[in-house]
Amino acid sequence: MLTEARGQSPRLYAALLVSMVLSFPLSGCGVGYLVQAAHGQWQVLKRRQPLATVIADPKTLEPVRTQLAVVLDARDFASQILGLPDNASYRSFAALNRPYVVWNVVAAPEFSVQPLRWCFPVVGCVAYRGYFKEPAARKFAARLVRRGDDVLVAGVPAYSTLGHFADPVLDTMLRYGDVELAGTIFHELAHQLLYVKGDSDFNEAFAMTVEQEGVARWLAARGRGAELDAYISRRKAQEQVVRLFVAGRSELEALYAQPLPLAERRQRKREILAQTGTAVREYEARQGLSSGYDDWIDQGLNNAHLASIATYFECVPAFQRLLAENGGELPRFYAAVRALGREPAARRRMLCAPGKPGP
Question: What is the per-residue pLDDT for 123?
Answer without folding.
Answer: 64
